[in-house]
């Protein structure tokens, strides 16, 4: 009897508190970072994104609705089924309100499906492919840092305009690789270039010499690398070994992260053009943030664009959740679309109907060893690509949420 | 210009040469596996991890001790062999009388631990390792540009493989080894310390993997994942060659390198699958493998 | 046909387990339980081969994964009801089992393991290349649909009871097979094949039937999983899954009825509950392998059974 009365009392209290204050489920906001902590992408994303998300929470003040903001994280091992399982569990039993980072497209799409079903928010930073803002788009799903379209526009366009008219692609034989090649081909052709051929290599692949010789035999000026991570690194390294670059052909890495350049060393990577959403050494703000991140992370590392993007998206989510006075996924998502994004990562960012966060991208060239002052001093920013030019126009989107 | 299958003969020749270079790695790794299987009856799944460790020891020696490539070729196999012998003495030796399955699982577990530890310490992107100065540059063969280093890999691999084959098939020590495989009790009775011989064999087998790792370091990134991607292919090589057959694993290693090289030209997507196709066909026609004796 | 052989001494134990299965979803997160049941069934099917025929297949991922693909495709693209989609998946797994089994069972030991591995790798390659599998993105957003067009499986609890029912029925069937005259012959083959041949048994045929049954139930497990998680992906056909099922069976106890299920739950629990600690999971998993092989070769059930026996219960 006593128990029953107590429960009733507690329920009444909770209800009145809820009405008087904002509507937060279990009174608090909880964010999950689901990333690759052990596989191929654990350097460019991984632990660094957990550090970045915690920084965002701390910078926000650590509390929302008078309750501490909680952060949990897990390793999805780049597998869709594990990602989907963890997302489900987090939403069902852990009271997670939003899942962020989500490197690799298969995992991101898996979490997108669950989030859509549960009306919760997913914030994609590390994954690359454009379906996330096209047929897989969702009212509560966002794509933040970059995508294959922007990579293709940035690098493809710059290389063709520099005279690289004929292309040969080395493409990782999976959906992301195909997507990246298709996007780049479109840009190359639109600028008057031609594609001389392509070869689809197994994923993952260690020895690229055979494919590089095929690219060499094609006589194309540019060898486009539509792959990522270790595949790109090995291809670049072996191109140098086989004298491909000395022979007058140039490499274009279509998705290269600063962690890849660090791993390759400037000796191997110098001169390469690449597109990035962020570079730590751009202005005082980026330097200050990156320095803080680096101290927390240890090992003298500097953040990749995925790390910086994760900070930006988590901070923006918290701002929107505070403004909307709720953690209801749909309402916070609406608020997120309304609020402009202005932080060290995105100077004038905005979120479109398809969930794409549009912000400026940067075309960079890797420095020569003689130009670099030390570790992580790797990029020269060649051009700022305005967000509206970098990202797929809404008119081309196949996202059902876009009104035409 | 002459063509074969619609491809200039010379370009094809270049691709075959590249296949041979990859085959050199397969041969070195599968040789060690075959040796260990032949004598210890253990399917050494940690072979890939120990190959990776060989490359990492070379990288660590360079960055922390200032030891270059040539000393690393000696140091890395010694370090890895020491670890291997420790593993054999403390764990593997308990499993010899049991089913293959247990040795496989134990070494699989060890591979996960070794790889995991290196990943924790050095991340996954890999560390750069330069080609030694003496072997930098390349030869222009007319039909292709051959980096000197890759040529060296083939030569080194041939020397190692043939040397090992000679030692086992043609020397007294090798005769003891082969005898111990057939009947350990009898050999022991002749006054030869079989357990020590087994330990040394395991050490030598993994040392071969470590040398392959050092040789691979300048070609690929030195990365914790480099072994796990390779191990299953190397297994296939050993099986196709005939489990436990020394010459079989060497020849098959080079042959499959060539087959893979050709696949990379004509059906690149299947390059990592073709070896399994060969394996199915060989096992159906010749159940004990190309050079195996009885199933 | 005599009834399922459960001795009166085992009855209370079995009933207790059934009761536990019914109330557990109220205590433990049901999706986790379903995953455990799927992998438990997978391991039990695998165990039929390893534990009772003595054949180590290293390619069972192909039955598990391909059945998952077909079920997912049938449910999503053809709009089949879940039971029909599962049937389609199992049918393919059975067919695949027949072909692979026919090719492989004449080999023994390590060669059997390797030929199944090789065939599984070929099927993996087909999965990478076939357009309907959508590469590494997999078939996502598979609808669970309505069972027999009536019962909505979208509800987690309903889905759980469906999976649980299928699981119990499958395990009873496997238990029945193992304890039937057919099962006795399998064990005879495992213990002494030449003797079984000399007694006039067509050993190859028995092995093939066991292989096909094992493949079919591995497929059933994959089909269920694709509906539970609403996706089928390359991870399901990868050789790692073939390795994992060996681990589960071994952890639980080879050649016991419940062992593989226990092992399945254990592995799933390790993966799920340690996912939060990140990259250390894999190291821990490795250490568990090593410790198990060195210290607990008879598996959890193997360790537990003597203890249970002392209390008059047969595991």
Word description of this protein:
The complex is a heterotrimer of chains A (404), B (295) and C (315). With 404 residues, chain A is an alpha/beta fold. Chain A has two domains: 25-146 and 284-355, Rossmann fold, CATH 3.40.50.2300; 149-276 and 361-387, Rossmann fold (3-Layer(aba) Sandwich). Chain A has helices at residues 2-20, 47-60, 80-94, 105-118, 148-161, 175-190, 209-218, 229-241, 258-264, 266-269, 284-297, 305-324, 329-338, 387-390; strands spanning 30-35, 63-64, 67-68, 70-75, 98-101, 121-124, 141-143, 166-172, 194-201, 222-226, 250-253, 273-276, 350-351, 357-358, 361-366, 379-385. In chain A, the strands form five sheets. A five-stranded parallel β-sheet of chain A has the order 4-1-5-6-7, with helices on both faces. A four-stranded parallel β-sheet of chain A has the order 9-8-10-11, sandwiched between helices. In chain A, strands 12-15-16 form a three-stranded antiparallel β-sheet. In chain A, strand 2 (63-64) and strand 3 form a beta hairpin. In chain A, helix 5 packs parallel to helix 6, helix 8 (229-241) runs parallel beside helix 9 and helix 12 (305-324) packs across helix 13. Chain A is globular and about 65 Å long. Chain B is built from eleven helices and four strands, in the order ββααααββααααααα. The longest helix of chain B is centred in the first third of the chain and has 32 residues, at 9-40. Chain C has one domain (11-310): ABC transporter involved in vitamin B12 uptake, BtuC (Orthogonal Bundle), CATH 1.10.3470. Chain C has 14 helices and four strands. In chain C, the strands form two sheets. Chain C has a two-stranded antiparallel ribbon. Chain C has a two-stranded antiparallel sheet with strand order 2-3. In chain C, a hairpin with a 3-residue loop joins strand 2 and strand 3. The chains are: A alpha/beta (404), B mainly alpha (295), C mainly alpha (315). Chains in contact: A-B, A-C, B-C. The interface between A and B is large, with 40 and 40 residues.
């Amino acid at each position: 009897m006593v128990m029953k009365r107590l429960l009733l009392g507690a329920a009444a209290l909770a209800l009145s508190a809820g009405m008087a204050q904002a509507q937060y489920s279990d009174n608090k906001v909880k964010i999950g970072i689901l990333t690759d902590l052990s596989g191929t992408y654990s350097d460019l994303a991984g632990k660094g994104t957990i550090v970045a998300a915690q920084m965002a929470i701390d910078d926000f003040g650590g509390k929302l609705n008078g309750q501490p903001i909680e952060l949990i994280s897990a390793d999805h091992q780049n597998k869709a089924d594990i990602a989907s399982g963890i997302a489900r569990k987090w939403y069902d039993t852990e009271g997670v309100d939003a899942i962020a980072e989500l490197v690799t497209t298969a995992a991101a799409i898996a979490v997108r499906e669950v989030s859509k079903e549960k009306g919760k928010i997913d914030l994609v930073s590390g994954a690359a492919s454009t379906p996330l803002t096209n047929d897989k788009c969702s009212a509560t799903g966002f794509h933040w840092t970059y995508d294959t379209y922007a990579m293709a526009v940035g690098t493809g366009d710059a290389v063709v305009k520099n005279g690289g008219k004929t292309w040969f692609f080395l493409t990782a034989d999976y959906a992301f690789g195909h997507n990246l090649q298709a996007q780049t081909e479109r840009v190359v052709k639109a600028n008057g270039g031609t594609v001389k051929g392509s070869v689809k290599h197994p994923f993952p692949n260690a020895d690229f010499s055979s494919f590089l010789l095929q690219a060499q035999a094609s006589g194309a000026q540019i060898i486009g690398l539509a792959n990522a991570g270790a595949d790109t690194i090995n291809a670049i390294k072996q191109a140098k070994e086989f004298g491909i670059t000395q022979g007058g052909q140039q490499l274009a890495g279509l998705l290269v992260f600063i962690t890849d350049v660090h791993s390759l060393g400037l000796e191997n990577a110098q001169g390469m053009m690449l597109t990035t959403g962020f570079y730590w050494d751009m202005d005082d703000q980026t330097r200050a943030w990156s320095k803080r991140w680096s101290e927390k992370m240890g090992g003298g590392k500097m953040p990749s664009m995925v790390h910086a993007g994760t900070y930006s998206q988590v901070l923006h989510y918290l701002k929107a959740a505070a403004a909307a006075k709720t953690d209801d996924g749909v309402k916070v998502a609406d608020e997120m679309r309304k609020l402009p994004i202005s932080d060290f990562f995105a100077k004038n960012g905005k979120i479109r109907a398809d969930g794409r966060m549009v912000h400026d991208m940067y075309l960079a060239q890797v420095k020569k060893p003689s130009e670099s002052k030390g570790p992580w001093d790797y990029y020269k920013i060649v051009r700022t690509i305005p967000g509206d030019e970098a990202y797929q126009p809404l008119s081309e989107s196949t996202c059902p949420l876009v009104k035409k | 210009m002459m063509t074969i299958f619609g491809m200039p003969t010379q370009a094809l020749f270049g691709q075959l040469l590249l296949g041979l270079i990859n085959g050199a790695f397969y041969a070195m790794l599968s040789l060690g596996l075959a040796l260990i299987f032949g004598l210890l009856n253990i399917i050494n799944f940690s072979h890939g991890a120990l190959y990776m460790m060989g490359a990492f020891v070379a990288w660590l020696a360079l960055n922390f001790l200032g030891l270059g490539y040539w000393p690393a070729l000696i140091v890395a196999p010694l370090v890895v062999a020491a670890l291997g012998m420790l593993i054999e003495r403390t764990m593997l030796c308990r499993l010899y009388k049991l089913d293959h399955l247990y040795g496989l699982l134990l070494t699989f577990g060890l591979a996960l631990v070794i790889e995991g530890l290196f990943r924790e310490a050095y991340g996954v992107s890999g560390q750069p390792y330069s080609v030694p100065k003496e072997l930098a540059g390349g030869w222009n063969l007319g039909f292709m540009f051959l980096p000197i280093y890759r040529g060296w890999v083939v030569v080194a691999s041939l020397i190692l493989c043939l040397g090992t084959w000679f030692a086992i098939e043609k020397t007294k020590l090798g005769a003891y080894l082969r005898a111990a495989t057939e009947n350990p009790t009898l050999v022991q009775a002749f006054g030869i310390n079989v357990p020590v011989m087994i330990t040394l064999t395991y050490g030598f087998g993994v040392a071969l993997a470590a040398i392959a790792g050092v040789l691979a370091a300048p070609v690929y990134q030195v990365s914790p994942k480099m072994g796990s991607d390779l191990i299953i292919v190397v297994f296939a090589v050993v099986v196709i060659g005939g489990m436990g057959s020394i010459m079989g694993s060497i020849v098959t290693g080079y042959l499959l390198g060539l087959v893979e090289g050709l696949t990379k030209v004509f059906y690149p997507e299947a390059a990592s699958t073709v070896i399994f196709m060969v394996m199915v066909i060989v096992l159906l026609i010749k159940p004990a493998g190309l050079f195996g004796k009885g199933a | 046909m005599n009834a399922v052989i459960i001795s009166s001494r085992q009855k209370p134990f079995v009933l207790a387990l059934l009761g536990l299965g019914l109330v557990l979803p109220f205590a433990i997160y049901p999706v986790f339980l379903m995953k455990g049941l799927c992998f438990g069934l997978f391991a039990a099917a695998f165990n039929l081969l390893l534990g009772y025929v003595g054949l180590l297949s290293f390619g069972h991922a192909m039955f598990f994964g391909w059945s998952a693909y077909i079920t997912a495709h049938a449910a999503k693209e053809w709009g089949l009801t879940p039971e029909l989609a599962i049937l389609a998946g199992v049918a393919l797994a059975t067919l695949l089992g027949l072909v692979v089994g026919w090719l492989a069972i004449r080999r023994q030991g390590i060669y059997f393991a390797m030929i199944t591995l090789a065939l599984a790798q070929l099927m993996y390659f087909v999965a990478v290349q076939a357009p309907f599998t959508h590469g590494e993105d997999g078939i996502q957003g598979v609808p669970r649909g309505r069972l027999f067009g009536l019962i909505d499986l979208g509800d987690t609890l309903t889905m759980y009871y469906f999976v649980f029912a299928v699981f119990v029925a499958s395990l009873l069937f496997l238990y029945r097979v193992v304890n039937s005259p057919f099962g006795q012959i399998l064990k005879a083959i495992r213990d002494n094949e030449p003797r079984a041949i000399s007694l006039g048994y067509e050993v190859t045929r028995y092995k093939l039937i066991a292989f096909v049954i094992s493949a079919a139930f591995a497929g059933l497990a994959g089909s269920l999983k694709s509906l539970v998680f609403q996706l089928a992906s390359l991870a399901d056909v990868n050789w790692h899954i073939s390795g994992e099922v060996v681990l589960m069976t071994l952890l639980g106890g080879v050649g016991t009825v419940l062992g593989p299920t226990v092992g399945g739950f254990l592995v799933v629990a390790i993966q799920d509950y340690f996912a939060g600690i990140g990259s250390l999971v894999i190291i821990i998993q490795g250490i568990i392998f090593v410790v198990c092989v060195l210290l607990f070769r008879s598996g959890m059930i193997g360790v537990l059974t003597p203890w249970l026996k002392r209390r008059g219960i047969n595991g």
